[in-house]
Each structure stands twice: as structure tokens, then as C-alpha cells.
Write a structure and sequence with these properties.
single chain, alpha/beta, nine-stranded mixed β-sheet, two-stranded antiparallel sheet
């Protein structure tokens, strides 16, 4: 067992929360958690931050409850690490209006994007406090309580998340920190552009993102039968910004929104492409096209930030390990296993079990009608994000199967293919003996040894059938 020191970059939805709970519950000799860097994603940035603070609130209540009844308090990694929580950007690098254009609808925050379009970290924390103070909703009372604590298990940062990432990489030995990216990769792209050499001190970037052979979107046939989807009341733990209704329910069933792209990559393909370019022998050759102005940008708004290109001669290549949907969707937490594990916890009045059951039961209720061919107990939630944490906890297990050095690229400008992963499936081998002046006979240059990205990809785990129960046991105990 090798200790991993990690930074967790996240846009907290349901499986992000499960990933954080698994990380919190790791043994101190498995994980050290330095930073939770929060980014926009399936919901707006302020709601993402709210979800993180809610999680801490209920974990702290759970620890106090366990101690009061003589149980082990658990959450050893969290109690030892007490991570920093930092706030990232509100929008992707390009196409600033993406989330509004695609998802429309209510954000539940009185038009935060129009009234406060570009908040600093300090202003974001302040805004979170203001919303909590003015609201009469019980969940906002919990946020206010957590924010006013002096002995919380996290430390709020007043500087942007990408600068916190760089600070930690500077302050620690090279190759000692792993970044786990389970949301859009905007924070990572900003850090890499700000200081490429410091960013390259990272040991490994572990990414939940992309899809190789797996389709990108939900079954279109399901979209033609919205009457099969029940009218379920919106839980306070929201998943995406699509207005409530059949389309939202369908989008929530899987973590992607187009026929060819997984959501995290789709949300900011430019950021993903820039980060993956650092795995190439020639990063500048793998950079995405220059950013275009956002569609419908209003007059008077500041222009998009221009991120620097990478220097020609960097000290090393970035080490990236991908966990695409092809592998993550095979790891499922079934409703039967979930209810069997939580039933005794709920009977004993576990605060964390009560909170988790609210959004998990709502998720199972939404997924169930889309799979009428299976029993209620067999309905499952795909554990996309938590799988990356399991890998970090147990990466020396020989049962992990990793393909090394694949040339995987991200489509950033396609009208229909934004966020798509592109691989060369012609069966031709890259010739590493070619130099820059030799032409291998293919106009795209993919077979020249010095071209292309070099990404590692997970294709097998220690056990797709055991992971759901393992996660529950780690978080809630046996």
C-alpha cells in the first residue's frame, strides 16, 4: 500500500459526493487530501460550493453521532488532512454562455450569473453566506451553521483554485501530489497556463472523463416516451441546471449530454485539450484552436482571457491516466445493496445516512422507469467519479489494467462533436523513428513519433461487481 497525496477537483453532483465520501473514509496510509478545488459543472459554481459545504456539515454531524453512541468516528483521512476548499471559475474557457444556452432554466439563486457574473473567491464565499442568511430553507440554515464554525474540518481559501493548486505543487516535493479531476478541467488548464513547469511537478493527473467506444448520450428512444417518467419532486441536492421535467430526468440518468461526448469533457473541451497536450513530446503542436468570442456576448463585457501557449522546451511530459465512461459505467451501486447497507444506519438515526438517502433515493426513482426490464432492487447508479478514488487508494493492485501512451485527442470546435474523444482506429502503428522532417505518408501526421498525445487509459479494475459494496462499507461501516 502506497500513500497518495491528492488534490480533488470536482463539480459536486451525486457521484462526486460519493467520491468525496470515499476519499474522506480512506485510511491515513492510503490517502492524504490536501485540497478540494471546486468548479462549475452540472450545476452552477455557487451550488457546487454549497454542496461541498453541506457534505462537510453532515460528515461532522455523523462523526459527533458516532462518538455519542460509542462507535468509531471513521473518516480518518478527512480528520487528519483537514483540506483547503478553494473556488474555481464560473464558466469554461470558451463559449461563455454554454450552460445557459444548453441547459436554460432555473438556477435557484435569483439570477446569480447575470447579477454577479464574475465573482472573486472572497465574493463567492460571501455570496454563499448571504444566500444562506436570507433563505428560510432548512438546508440553507445548515450552510450558515457550517460557515460560522471555528473548528470545521476544512479551511476556506481566499485565492482562486488554480493558484491554490500551484501553491501546493510548489510547496511539496516534485512527483508527490496526484490531482484527481472529476469535473470540467478548467481549474487544471488555468494552472497549467499560469506556470507550466510548476504544474508539471504533479505526479499524475487521474481523470474521469471522455468515452472511446461507449456512446455519448442517453437512448433517443427514451426521449420519445416521456410519459414513462414519473413526476418526481425536485430534491434540494440538484444535479443539472435543466429545468425540471422529462429531459432533465433523462439527462440525470447518465453523466453525458451528446451522442458522442461525456459531460466533463463536453463542458470545457478546450481545457481538456490544453491539459492533455502536456502529455505530448510537442505540446504546442497539440494545442486547440484559439478561443472564439462567446455566442451572443453583450457589449461591455470583458474579453475572454488569452491563455499563454506552452514553451517549446518543457522539463517533462505530463502523466495522465483516464477513466472514461467505457470503464466507469461498468461499476454500479445497486438500489438493493444501497438499501440493505443503509437500513440499519437509518434505523439508528445516522445523520449522514439520512442525508445521502434523500438524493440517492431520488436518483434511483429517476433511473428506475428507464429500465423497466430489471427489478427495483437491481436499478443501479454508475459510479463514474468514485472509481478514480478507488484507483488512488489501491493503485498498486495488479488487477488494475492500464493501456499506456494512447494518442487520444479532444474535438473542441465541432458543431456536433464538441468534446468527443478521437482515436486512430485504422490499425496503423506510430513510428517513433520518424523525425519532424520525415513524412510517413499520412497528411494528419498521426504516425510521426513526435506527434500526438500520450494518455494512459484504464480498461480494467480489481472488480466491477464488488466496488459498490466496498464503497458503502468504507463510508458507513459494516
Amino acid at each position: 500500500m502506497t500513500l497518495r497525496t491528492i488534490i480533488l477537483d470536482t463539480d459536486p453532483g451525486v457521484d462526486d459526493i460519493l467520491a468525496m465520501l470515499l476519499a474522506f473514509s480512506a485510511l491515513p496510509e492510503e490517502l492524504e487530501l490536501l485540497l478540494i478545488s471546486v468548479t462549475y459543472g452540472n450545476i452552477d459554481l455557487l451550488n457546487c460550493l454549497r454542496n461541498v459545504i453541506s457534505l462537510f456539515h453532515y460528515v461532522e454531524k455523523e462523526i459527533a453521532w458516532r462518538e455519542s453512541i460509542g462507535r468509531s468516528s471513521g473518516f480518518a483521512t478527512l480528520r487528519k488532512s483537514k483540506p483547503v476548499v478553494a473556488v474555481g471559475p464560473e464558466y469554461p474557457l470558451a463559449d461563455d454562455t454554454l450552460m445557459v444556452d444548453i441547459f436554460h432554466g432555473q438556477d435557484g439563486l435569483n439570477g446569480i450569473h447575470s447579477s454577479h457574473p464574475h465573482l472573486t473567491p472572497a465574493e463567492t464565499w460571501q455570496r454563499l453566506n448571504e444566500v444562506a442568511d436570507k433563505s428560510s430553507a432548512p438546508e440553507q440554515d445548515e450552510i450558515a451553521e457550517e460557515m460560522n464554525k471555528t473548528d470545521s474540518l476544512f479551511t476556506p481559501s481566499q485565492i482562486p483554485a488554480h493558484l491554490e493548486i500551484l501553491r501546493l505543487l510548489r510547496d511539496n516535493e516534485p512527483n508527490s501530489i496526484t490531482i484527481v479531476a472529476i469535473g470540467p478541467m478548467t481549474n487544471l488548464a488555468l494552472a497549467a497556463a499560469e506556470d507550466p513547469e510548476t504544474f508539471l511537478k504533479v505526479k499524475e493527473i487521474v481523470v474521469m472523463g471522455g468515452n472511446i467506444d461507449q456512446a455519448g448520450n442517453v437512448d433517443y428512444q427514451s426521449l420519445s416516451h416521456p410519459q414513462h417518467i414519473p413526476n418526481i419532486q425536485e430534491p434540494p441536492f440538484r444535479l443539472i441546471k435543466q429545468a425540471p421535467g422529462p429531459i432533465r430526468d433523462l439527462l440525470n440518468t447518465r453523466n453525458q449530454v451528446t451522442p458522442v461526448a461525456e459531460f466533463n469533457t463536453y463542458a470545457d473541451p478546450t481545457a481538456a485539450a490544453r491539459v492533455y497536450a502536456l502529455t505530448s513530446p510537442k505540446p504546442h503542436a497539440m494545442m486547440p484552436p484559439a478561443l472564439a468570442a462567446p455566442r451572443g456576448q453583450k457589449e461591455g463585457l470583458p474579453p475572454l482571457p488569452v491563455l499563454s501557449s506552452y514553451p517549446d522546451n518543457l522539463s517533462k511530459r505530463l502523466n495522465v491516466t483516464l477513466f472514461p465512461m467505457d470503464i466507469t459505467e461498468k461499476h454500479v451501486l445497486t438500489r438493493g445493496d444501497f438499501e440493505a447497507s443503509l437500513q440499519p444506519q437509518l434505523a439508528a438515526k445516522s445523520p449522514l445516512a439520512e442525508w445521502v438517502s434523500v438524493f440517492m433515493n431520488a436518483t434511483f426513482e429517476k433511473v428506475g422507469p428507464l429500465h423497466s426490464e430489471i427489478s427495483k432492487e437491481a436499478v443501479g447508479l454508475q459510479l463514474h467519479d468514485p472509481l478514480t478514488i478507488w484507483y488512488c487508494m489501491d493503485d498498486d493492485n495488479p488487477k488494475w489494467k492500464i493501456i499506456e501512451g494512447e494518442d487520444i485527442r479532444v474535438e473542441t470546435t465541432g458543431q456536433w462533436t464538441r468534446g468527443m474523444f478521437l482515436t486512430d482506429k485504422r490499425g496503423l502503428r506510430r513510428n517513433d523513428d520518424y523525425d519532424d522532417n520525415e513524412a510517413p505518408g499520412h497528411k494528419d501526421g498521426r504516425l510521426i513519433g513526435s506527434n500526438g498525445n500520450r494518455l494512459n487509459r484504464c480498461v480494467g479494475s480489481p472488480g466491477q461487481d464488488i466496488f459498490g459494496r466496498l464503497l458503502l462499507e468504507r463510508v458507513f461501516g459494516s
